Amino acid sequence: MKPYNLHTHTTFCDGDNTPEELAAAALAAGCETLGFSGHSHTGFDERYCMSLAGTREYKERVRRLQAEYAPRLRILLGIEQDYYSELPAEGYDFVIGSVHYLYRHGEYLPVDEDPQWQQGIVADHYGGDYYGFAEDYFATLADVHRRTGCHIVGHFDLIAKFNEGGVLFDEAHPRYRAAALAALDRLAGEGVAFEVNTGAVAKGWRTQPYPADWLLQAMRDRGARLVFSSDCHKADQLLAGWETWGPLCGPSL
């Protein structure tokens, strides 16, 4: 199986490289498929997402690259649609559905901004109960396919980004596992694919991709489809982890 990546961010959102630079890098790396997946616009937090005007240009630029690179490289125009994005995910080849925020007490709370911010959210909005935070996250994630119409569920256990070695909470806790498995059962029943996402490994936060090993096994037990994703924000990380984790996945879309 030739390498591929379906989760790629550009300078239209929080990536470091243009679509043109990333397409050239993918071709040079021998990729079969490159899926662009810009962060959908979230009007309540515009720090990292595509602007409304940028979204339109992003679509035009990627469509031009599709024609330019065919048939040497298969390019897909995608979107990473957040649960709380305002714009519908229309006009794309594929959609990644992700939960980057929880809505609580009238605020949109980023779940993976940084460790201190996450701990502050848990303290201020969940009374210090990390398992209540996890239950809220996974209940929201369970609904992401209905909400976004996604083909792929993004970084399933994203809230564990800063929990290497269990420094913040116990991922074997019954409440955590029950919440995660309830979300997995619903989503697997809806036929979506799940990422093996190496982004946090490339950034030094984790030593293994999302999802954790026990969740990966649970996905396999349910016959869920797995796709590789480097969650690329830099051209030199386009295939980060492919040699180790790519063989665990099926072919690209």
Description:
- Helices cover 36% and strands 17% of the residues.
- It is an alpha/beta fold and 253 residues long.
- The chain has one domain (4-248): Alpha-Beta Barrel (TIM Barrel).
- The chain has a 7-stranded parallel sheet.
- Helix 4 packs parallel to helix 6.
- The model has no long low-confidence stretch (mean pLDDT 98).
By DSSP (H or I, 4+ residues per run), the number of helices equals 9
How many beta strands in the DSSP annotation?
A: 9
What is the CATH homology-level superfamily? Metal-dependent hydrolases
- Helix % is 25-40%
Strand order of the largest sheet: 1-2-3-4-7-8-9
Question: How much of the sequence is in beta strands?
Answer: 15-25%
* Mean pLDDT reading: 98
Total individual domains:
1
Question: What structural class should be given to the helix and strand makeup?
Answer: alpha/beta
What is the H/E string? EHEHEEEEHHHEHEHHEH
The radius of gyration computed from the alpha-carbon positions, rounded to a whole number of angstroms, is: 17 Å
Main beta sheet: strand number and arrangement?
Answer: 7 strands, parallel
Overall body shape: globular
Unreliable sequence segments: none
- CATH architectural type: Alpha-Beta Barrel
- The N- to C-terminal Cα distance equals 13 Å
Q: What's the level 1 CATH class?
A: Alpha Beta
- Per the CATH scheme, the topology name is TIM Barrel
InterPro entries: Histidinol_P_phosphatase_HisJ (IPR010140), PHP_dom (IPR004013), Pol/histidinol_Pase-like (IPR016195)
Pfam families: PHP
Enzyme class: hydrolase
Catalytic activity: L-histidinol phosphate + H2O = L-histidinol + phosphate
